[in-house]
Amino acid sequence: MRFAGSADYVATPDLAVAVNASITLERPLLVKGEPGTGKTELARQIARALGLPLIEWSVKSTTRAAQGLYEYDAVSRLRDSQLGDARVHDVANYIRKGPLWRAFDAGEKVVLLIDEIDKADIEFPNDLLQELDRMEFFVYETGETIVAKRRPIVVITSNNEKELPDAFLRRCFFHYIRFPDPETLARIVDVHFPGIKPGLVRAALTRFFEIRETPGLKKKPSTSEALDWLKLLLAEDLDAADLRTDPASNLPRLHGALLKNEQDVHLFERLAFLARSKRS
Question: In whole angstroms, what is the distance from residue 167 CA to residue 130 CA?
Fold first, then answer.
């Protein structure tokens, strides 16, 4: 069971090594990187490439670790007891399985994605230490212990919004997805837009990396934004010549796909103004 990318996902050699190392060690793969570099998509492509089911758990600021195990619906049980429903005699009727329970309970190996773990409270990762390490947990309401039938492949993503505890990091295999170089990004473009004109790709990616490397940029455009931009260029049937920057604003065509705040738009407009002032 080895991952080497897929027809829809370009995995660099170091990323493939990280995925396969985590599978061999049976430890969670903690993936960090800029937003839009394909961290979430990695888990989906691992599942697709290995022919395994995928269970996704999208973490929010209000998410509690216990929700990944199960939730006990005491309110529904109280209501049913008032209505004389016979279901109240079995507490299991009011237990809702969380993503970890479903992964542990699956009859086959699955890929479990815990997406954007850094959005939750700082104690969230620590609250999952034992469950991810021992692959079991106790259900207090029913008195049963849930043990994983098959250890899942666990992929955990983080945008590095907050530091994760050392005890949690110690139990993971870590990989940082670096922003792709021009050659790798060109391969990614080819996967998503087969048959695209090479001249358009060269011109678009040259302009894209110029934008990313502009000093003072508040938010650098990501891989996903580069793909959105190219999709728009194709939809408008533009070619390399059409990508020449408007000297009045120094902004690329359809720049709204790449620049996502007014500060960065104003930055390029100021740069254009300074360039015109120097020429005059």
Answer: 11
Greatest CA separation for the chain? 87
Q: How many CB atoms lie within 10 A of CB 55?
A: 21
pLDDT at 280 over 90: no
Give the whole-number percent of the chain exceeding pLDDT 90: 64
- The percentage of the chain sitting over the pLDDT mark of 70, rounded to a whole number, equals 95
- What is the model's pLDDT at position 274? 73
- State the Cα–Cα distance between residues 192 and 201, nearest whole angstrom: 12
Tell how strand 95-97 and strand 70-72 pair up. antiparallel
Report how far residue 280's alpha carbon sits from residue 278's, in angstroms, rounded to the nearest whole number.
Answer: 5
Decide: 110 and 99 in contact? Cβ < 8 Å: no
Distance CA 31, CA 115 (A): 10
Query: Residue type for 236, please?
Result: E
Is the pLDDT score of 247 beyond 60? no
Helix axes 198-212, 182-192, angle to 10 degrees: 130
Q: If you average pLDDT over every residue of the chain, what do you get?
A: 90
Mark 178-203 as b/e (b = at least 16 C-beta within 10 Å): eebeeeebbebbeeebeebeeebbeb
Tell me the C-alpha distance between 257 and 25, whole Å.
Answer: 40
Pairing of strands 136-139, 144-147: antiparallel
**At CA 176, angle to CA 172 and CA 179, rounded to 5?**
165
Reference 26, options 106, 97, 112, 98; nearest CA is 112
Q: Specify burial of residue 49 (Cβ count, 10 A radius: 0-12, 13-18, 19+).
A: buried
> Strand, helix or coil at 230?
helix
